[in-house]
Structure formats: C-alpha cells, structure tokens
C-alpha cells in the first residue's frame, strides 16, 4: 500500500495541472467595443470558420445604420489559449467592406478582450479617387 500512494499523488497532480494553465479565450458570443458597436459571433467550426453580425455605432454614411453580416476565421483554435483571428464585415447600408484582424486575450481578472485593427474600403467612382477609398 505504501508504493501505491506516491503513484496516486502524481496522478492527481497531473489531472489538476491542466486547470492551472491560462484560460482559453473563446470568440463565440456578444462583444461591445469602446464606441458602443455590437458584434455577435456564432460558434467556431472544426476548420476555425465562424459567422456573425456587426452593428456599428459609428459611420460616415448618410444611410441608416443596419446590422451587417460578417465571416471570419480563427487560427490554431485548438493549440493556443489566446488565438489570432480575422473577419470581414460586408456593410448592409453602404458600399464598403471592412476587414479586421486581431487576437483574443484573457486578462489577469479572467475577462476576455479582443484587440483588433481594421481596414475599411469604400466604393469610389473612378481610379483617380482610389487614394481616398481606404481608411
């Protein structure tokens, strides 16, 4: 019986150790940014693809803001606890598209935070106006 006890202690430490690692950051759910824009992301499939919607709180368009569809991809979703991702929003109320890229983090308090950069491409009527189409 003495020889079994050390084995059980090692086994219990091995079972507890995964719980000591950093929490996994999950994209699925509703996100609200500093300006009040609201994004809802559906489940991520086995390939890392996901869909959702984006309701922006800010725009330069004169049109009424509408919820817009988005499609994205999560990189190495099974390997990293704080994964990188990208998604595209096809704005329903304007002739523009925005691409976002970023990373999902779990902060010291256990809160999930998305850090992103974006690039917006607006429609222009001719190539001479191309310089002002991307922000």
From TrEMBL:
- What InterPro entries would the database entry show? Avidin (IPR005469), Avidin-like_sf (IPR036896), Avidin/str (IPR005468), Avidin/Streptavidin-rel (IPR051764)
Quote the subcellular location field of this record. Secreted
Disulfide bond residue pairs: 25-104
Identify the keywords attached in UniProt to this record, alphabetized: Biotin, Disulfide bond, Glycoprotein, Secreted, Signal
What Pfam family is a match, any one?
A: Avidin
* Signal peptide extent: 1-22
Q: Name one GO molecular function term.
A: biotin binding
Q: Report the GO terms under cellular component.
A: extracellular region
Gene3D superfamilies noted in UniProt = Avidin-like
Report the protein's function: Forms a strong non-covalent specific complex with biotin.
Identify its protein family. Answer: Belongs to the avidin/streptavidin family.
- Quaternary form? Homotetramer.
The protein, known as:
Avidin
Organism of provenance: Ardeotis kori
């Amino acid at each position: 019986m003495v020889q079994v006890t050390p084995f059980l202690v090692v086994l219990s430490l091995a079972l507890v150790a995964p719980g000591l690692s950093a929490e996994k950051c999950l994209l699925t759910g509703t996100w609200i940014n500093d300006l009040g824009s609201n994004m809802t992301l559906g489940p991520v499939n086995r390939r890392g693809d996901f869909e959702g919607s984006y309701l922006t709180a800010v725009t330069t368009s004169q049109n009424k803001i509408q919820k817009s569809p988005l499609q994205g991809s999560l990189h190495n979703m099974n390997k990293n606890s704080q994964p990188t991702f990208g998604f595209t929003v096809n704005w329903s109320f304007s002739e523009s598209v925005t691409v976002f890229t970023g990373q999902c983090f779990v902060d010291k308090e256990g809160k999930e935070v998305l850090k992103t950069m974006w690039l917006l491409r607006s429609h222009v009527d001719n190539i001479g106006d191309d310089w002002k189409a991307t922000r």
